[in-house]
């Protein structure tokens, strides 16, 4: 995996990978830490969708809120991370959804594995 990040001005950068571009801007958009939280949510979301599809669990939506508490001292790092999974699924599928989330966060999501070395990761499931 390789990315190239180019400074534009101030705190704004463009980052490229395989022809795709994201903008990084701590003042007017996603800063590096917000991207890290989004990366965790995306990594786990990808896993959860794949696992639910393999389990043949019908669902019609998934969104993930990610929040982190940071240390006071520099460098400010994440102490705790809390994910809230909003899943549009029948209530009787809750156990399978929880299993999919647990498998993602404990076994498959590499971003969670990296972050867990310094931060606790907890989650809440909201069935909608």
What's the arrangement of secondary structure elements?
Blueprint: E1 4-9, E2 12-17, E3 20-25, H1 32-54, E4 59-70, E5 78-89, H2 94-108, H3 110-116, E6 120-127
Parallel strand pairs: 5-6
Antiparallel strand pairs: 1-2, 2-3, 4-5
Helix pairs in contact: 1-2
Identify the overall geometry: globular
Q: What distance separates the N and C termini? A: 36 Å
CATH architecture of the largest domain: 2-Layer Sandwich
Strand line-up across the major sheet: 1-2-3
Number of helices: 3
CATH superfamily of the largest domain: K homology (KH) domain
Number of domains: 2
- From N to C, what is the helix and strand string? EEEHEEHHE
Describe this structure in words.
This protein has two domains: 1-30, no CATH class; 32-127, K homology (KH) domain (GMP Synthetase, Chain A, domain 3, 2-Layer Sandwich). The strands form two sheets. Strands 1-2-3 form a three-stranded antiparallel sheet, with no helix packed on it. With 128 residues, it is of the alpha+beta class. The mean pLDDT is 97. It is globular and about 50 Å long. Strand 2 (12-17) and strand 3 (20-25) form a beta hairpin. The protein is built from three helices and six strands. 35% of the residues lie in helices and 39% in strands.
